[in-house]
Design goal:
Blueprint (H helix, E strand, L loop, with lengths): L3 E4 L9 H14 L17 H7 L5 H16 L8 H6 L4 E4 L4 H5 L13 E3 L12 H10 L6 E5 L2 H10 L2 E5 H4 L10 E3 L7 H4 L1
Helix pairs in contact: 1-3, 2-3
Length: 203
């Protein structure tokens, strides 16, 4: 049915949600800004730069650097969702489209030694416009040599779904990361666990 399976990274392949939110919370606290984790959940699925712009941070470059520094030691041991790599190995072709920048990827994804499982990786630094714009996903399609109707994008955030819709690509919700179907009424598939993805090639 699909020749190509493209994945978001955070909350879809790696269980990094709490790490990112905790590091952001600690960074803001240093500036006298008190936020509980729920107040910061809006940041999941968008680049850190965008998050800090939304929070109206005065010195964004310094704050972003501090946030990354707090994440680095934690991201080296970020958990990979159980079974996801086995699933990816069972797919015809797999890629990644993430809101992480190249620098962030160097301090997380590439330390996990799983990049060889993917045929392409598109990060936030690779396109001028980022999710929820279609540009990153369209670049991935070009790199992977497939048409929009031959691919599916699997992610855990509204931004992932909006990106897929804008690119004309079917969207599958990674429920193990999203933890809710609320707001995802336009998702073509709801995957309760990674193994459910294999049903698309086994049928």
């Amino acid at each position: 049915m699909y020749s190509t399976f493209i994945f978001d990274l955070d909350g879809t392949i790696i269980d990094s949600e709490l790490i990112g939110l905790t590091a952001l919370q600690a960074t803001l606290k240093e500036q006298g800004i008190e936020k509980d984790l729920d107040e910061l959940r809006f940041s999941l699925g968008i680049p850190g730069l965008t998050t800090l712009e939304i929070l109206n941070i005065a010195d964004i470059p310094t704050t972003l650097e501090s946030w990354l520094e707090k994440e680095k030691p934690l991201m080296k041991n970020v958990p990979i969702f159980e079974g996801i790599i086995d699933v990816i190995n069972g797919l015809p072709k797999a890629g990644i489209v993430t809101s992480k920048t190249a620098e962030e990827m160097n301090h997380s994804f590439y330390l996990l030694n799983i990049d060889h499982h993917f045929h392409s990786v598109v990060c936030a630094s690779d396109t001028e416009k980022r999710k929820p714009n279609p540009d990153p996903l369209e670049l991935a399609l070009k790199m992977l040599g497939c048409k929009a109707d031959e691919a599916i994008y699997i992610g855990d955030s509204i931004y992932d779904m909006q990106c897929a819709n804008a690119a004309g690509v079917d969207f599958g919700l990674a429920l193990w990361g999203a933890r809710t179907t609320s707001g995802f009424e336009n998702a073509k598939y709801i995957f309760e666990n990674p193994k459910d993805i294999l049903n698309l090639i086994n049928n």
